[in-house]
């Protein structure tokens, strides 16, 4: 049904899936840079098409509506919400009496800017397992947001500028909406802002934010892509990162920031296990994860295998 060689290919449908190499036909689960390429023909959701066009220029696309099956090369394909970023979709495949679910990056718990993943049962599950060790259990969001609020208050009272590092697609918009809900005005780096405009064009309200023009007003919070250092003469910046990797207390040193807060757009360890239970597959293949997670699934009685290299990606 599929092969894995320099990336995933759905053989029954002659589709590359989320590969970084150019292919004649591909399914793209979402528009993060490690999932897109200049394919000749792409199956994806309308928001992913818009975000991909923003990043790579116009491509030939067949748009998939979430939850609406399509026929493709004799198989039935359905895009399902993945809960990861705008447009992110899992792919459900029915072919030759078999079913397969490819998750791409996903998150089961709700966020402020995307709806949670909606998995469907399948015999074969191919899932990301980025946070596949028990260390990566996310604390409750309210707790993290309360800590963020305290930090921001302290930084602003000192007359410093809070600068939050967040990925330009997804995390940047999620944190903007969260900051708006806390009553803060947000200044976005142009890369974040351009993606925010696409979010709003698809009806996702992000609240009060503006494009960075070189100035910061008192009380404003700046949102920039990771490792981006805007010039702010005579203002002290206090840098914060929002990433699931921040569960590790040493993350702030690795990320080179003053504070790191664990807000993730990926499933945490418990959600990864929950995904397997909800899909209830005959066999599960794990990508982007650790051997430890595969071993844990095997201990729990699942037929689990590792797909690709046993590495943990650093996602921010
Ligand atoms: Zn992603």
Summarize the helices and strands and which ones pair or pack:
Elements: E1 2-4, E2 8-10, E3 15-17, E4 25-27, E5 41-44, H1 46-56, E6 60-63, E7 70-72, E8 75-81, E9 89-95, E10 98-102, E11 124-128, H2 141-157, E12 161-165, H3 171-181, E13 185-188, H4 190-201, E14 209-211, E15 220-224, E16 237-242, H5 251-255, E17 259-261, H6 269-279, E18 283-287, H7 291-299, E19 304-306
Parallel strand pairs: 3-4, 4-5, 5-6, 10-11, 11-18, 12-15, 12-16, 13-14, 13-15, 16-17, 18-19
Antiparallel strand pairs: 1-2, 2-3, 7-8, 8-9, 9-10
Bound molecules: zinc ion.
Give an overview of the whole structure:
This protein is α/β, with parallel strands linked by helices and 316 residues long. The protein folds into two domains: 2-135 and 266-306, Ribonuclease Z/Hydroxyacylglutathione hydrolase-like (Metallo-beta-lactamase, Chain A, 4-Layer Sandwich); 141-261, 3-Layer(aba) Sandwich (Rossmann fold), CATH 3.40.50.10890. The protein has seven helices and 19 strands. It has helices spanning 46-56, 141-157, 171-181, 190-201, 251-255, 269-279, 291-299, and strands spanning 2-4, 8-10, 15-17, 25-27, 41-44, 60-63, 70-72, 75-81, 89-95, 98-102, 124-128, 161-165, 185-188, 209-211, 220-224, 237-242, 259-261, 283-287, 304-306. The strands form three sheets. It has a seven-stranded mixed sheet, with helices on one face. A six-stranded mixed sheet has the order 1-2-3-4-5-6. Strand 2 (8-10) and strand 3 (15-17) form a beta hairpin. The longest helix has 17 residues, at 141-157. The protein is globular. The relative contact order is 0.14. The model is unreliable at 310-316 (pLDDT under 50). It binds zinc ion.
């Amino acid at each position: 049904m599929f092969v894995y060689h320099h990336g995933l290919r759905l053989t029954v449908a002659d589709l590359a899936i989320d590969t970084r190499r150019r292919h004649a036909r591909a399914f793209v689960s979402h528009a993060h840079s490690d999932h897109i390429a200049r394919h000749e023909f792409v199956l994806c959701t309308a928001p992913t098409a818009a975000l991909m066009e923003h990043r790579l220029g116009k491509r030939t696309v067949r748009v998939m509506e979430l939850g609406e099956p399509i026929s493709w090369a004799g198989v039935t394909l359905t895009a399902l919400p993945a809960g990861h970023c705008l447009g992110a979709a899992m792919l459900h495949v029915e072919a030759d009496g078999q079913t397969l679910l490819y998750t791409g990056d996903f998150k089961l718990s709700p966020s402020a800017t995307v709806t949670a993943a909606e998995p469907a049962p399948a015999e074969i599950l191919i899932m990301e397992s980025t946070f596949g060790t028990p260390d990566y259990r996310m604390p409750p969001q309210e707790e993290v947001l309360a800590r963020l609020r305290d930090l921001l208050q302290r930084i602003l009272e000192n007359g410093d500028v809070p600068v939050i590092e967040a990925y330009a697609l997804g995390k940047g918009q999620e944190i903007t909406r969260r900051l708006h809900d806390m009553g803060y005005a947000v200044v976005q780096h142009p890369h974040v802002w351009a993606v925010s405009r696409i979010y709003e064009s698809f009806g996702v309200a992000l609240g009060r934010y503006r494009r960075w023009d070189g100035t910061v007003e008192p009380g404003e919070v700046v949102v920039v892509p990771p490792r981006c250092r805007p010039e702010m003469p005579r203002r002290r910046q206090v840098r914060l990162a929002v990433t699931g990797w921040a569960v590790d207390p040493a993350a702030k040193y690795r990320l080179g920031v003053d504070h790191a807060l664990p807000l993730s757009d990926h499933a945490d360890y418990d959600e990864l296990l929950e995904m397997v239970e909800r899909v209830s597959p005959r066999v599960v293949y794990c990508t982007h994860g650790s051997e430890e997670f595969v071993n844990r699934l095997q201990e729990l009685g699942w037929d689990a295998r590792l797909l690709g290299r046993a590495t943990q990606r650093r996602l921010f």
